Amino acid sequence: MPRVPHDVLPPDPFADDPNDPAADLAALDDEPAEQVDAQTRADLLADLSDLAVYQALLESRGIRGLVVDCGECDQPHYHEWHLLRASLEQLLSDGRMRPHEPAYDPDPANYVSWDYCRGFADGVTATESAY
Fold first, then answer.
1. pLDDT band at 92 (very low <50, low <70, confident <90, very high)
2. Cα(62)–Cα(39) distance, integer angstroms
3. Which of 1, 82, 120, 126 is deepest in the core (most CB within 10 A)?
4. How far apart are the first and last CA of the chain?
């Protein structure tokens, strides 16, 4: 994708505004990365490995990603495969995940839970090892 020169973009509507809503996000760039402990690192690497398997098994069947029930807002969050991978990789490298846009108008039928993925992968493994 070609880069758009900065001078042809519309002006920032919050330029020089002390109440710029994105000011807090800019401060995140200045924070040092937090190191994850060895157990968390191992768990994240296992999740990334599992995610690759789940995507390989389910994407061709029309599954777009995972749904996770949020403990903070009690709402389901829908994550497409590549966004979830990027979030896990960022957590692994930076010790935190940055805010991101939720899936736009997701169809819940196109997303499954981690537990569903584990069961599906176990079923495929059991079926293939039986032959």
1. very high
2. 33
3. 120
4. 46
Amino acid at 49: S
Residue predicted with more confidence, 39 or 8: 39
pTM comes to 0.70
Q: How far is CA 74 from the centre of its chain?
A: 18
For 30-88, the DSSP string reads: HSPPPPPPHHHHHHHHHHHHHHHHHHHHHGGGT--EEEEE-TTTS-EEEEEHHHHHHHH
Question: Which residues lie below 8 Å from residue 47, measured CB to CB, with a gap of 6+?
Answer: 88
Q: Alpha-carbon distance 102 to 94, whole Å?
A: 21
Among residues 69, 67, 93, which one has the least CA distance to residue 80?
A: 67
**The residue to which tokens 């001078």 are assigned:** 7
- Nearest-angstrom CA–CA distance, 32 and 26: 13
Task: Name 94's Cβ contacts closer than 8 Å, sequence gap at least 6.
Answer: 33, 34
* Cα distance between residue 93 and residue 16, in whole Å: 32
